[in-house]
């Protein structure tokens, strides 16, 4: 059973995915996210990178619905979402690969690391403020080298979904939880 903290985190994550804010996740939410990614990272239509983003979005939708759409109605309710979040296999097979795909898009030079500016660009379009992103970046940059490494990011994503520790760094992954 999810703790109150975990429940807040799941709902906040749901809000980030529910692009049209209608209270359910649908394919059009994920399609809209793909469009946002292309715009954020200045990816021209019909390019190899645009096709890759669209494929990632389609795979994300398939993964989300196969893991969460209990009533097979083609939408994902908050209840279905919250129940899926409690399962580590959902985190490992859906949430983490999605988060790392976005990380890779933001990592324009392919270094496996994000600068604070790359992270701000990636997070701002999903509704996370620059201030929240800077706080997240500082917490994730455990070795204080001015970059967030892919493995630091992945660890924080897992922690976000699975930890009930109120002081966990991963809690910052979707912005303020209040």
Structure description:
This protein has 178 residues and is mainly alpha-helical. The chain has one domain (4-165): Orthogonal Bundle (Recoverin, domain 1). Helix content is 61%, strand content 2%. It contains eight helices and two strands. A two-stranded antiparallel ribbon has the order 1-2. Helix 2 (27-40) runs antiparallel to helix 3. The chain is globular and about 45 Å long. Keywords: Metal-binding, Repeat. This is EF-hand domain-containing protein.
Summing up helix and strand content along with how strands pair, one would put the structural category as: mainly alpha
Uncertain stretches: none
Tell me the name of the CATH class. Answer: Mainly Alpha
Query: Roughly what is the average pLDDT, rounded to an integer?
Result: 88
Oligomerization: single chain
The H-level CATH homologous superfamily, spelled out, is EF-hand
Strand order of the largest sheet: 1-2
Radius of gyration: 16 Å
Count of helix runs: 8
Overall 3D form: globular
What structural keywords apply?
178 residues; single chain; globular; two-stranded antiparallel ribbon; 2% strand; Recoverin, domain 1; mainly alpha
Layout: helices, strands, pairs:
Layout: H1 4-17, H2 27-40, H3 48-68, H4 78-85, H5 88-106, E1 113-114, H6 116-124, H7 130-140, E2 148-149, H8 150-162
Antiparallel strand pairs: 1-2
Helix pairs in contact: 1-4, 2-3, 3-5, 5-6, 5-8, 6-7
Summarize the structure.
The protein is an all-alpha fold and 178 residues long. It contains 8 helices and 2 strands.
């Amino acid at each position: 059973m999810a703790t109150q903290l975990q429940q807040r985190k799941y709902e906040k994550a749901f809000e980030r995915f529910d692009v049209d804010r209608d209270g359910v996740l649908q394919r059009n939410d994920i399609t809209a996210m793909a469009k946002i990614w292309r715009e954020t990272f200045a990816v021209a239509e019909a390019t190899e990178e645009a096709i890759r983003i669209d494929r990632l979005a389609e795979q994300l939708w398939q993964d989300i619905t196969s893991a969460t759409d209990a009533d097979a109605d083609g939408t994902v309710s908050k209840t279905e979402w919250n129940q899926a979040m409690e399962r580590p296999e959902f985190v490992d097979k859906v949430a983490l690969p999605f988060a790392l795909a976005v990380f890779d898009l933001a990592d324009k030079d392919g270094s496996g690391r994000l600068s604070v500016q790359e992270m701000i660009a990636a997070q701002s379009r999903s509704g996370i403020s620059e201030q929240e992103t800077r706080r997240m970046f500082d917490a994730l940059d455990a070795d204080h080298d001015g970059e967030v490494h892919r493995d630091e990011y992945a660890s924080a994503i897992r922690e976000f979904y699975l930890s009930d520790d109120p002081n966990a760094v991963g809690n910052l992954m979707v912005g303020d939880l209040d």
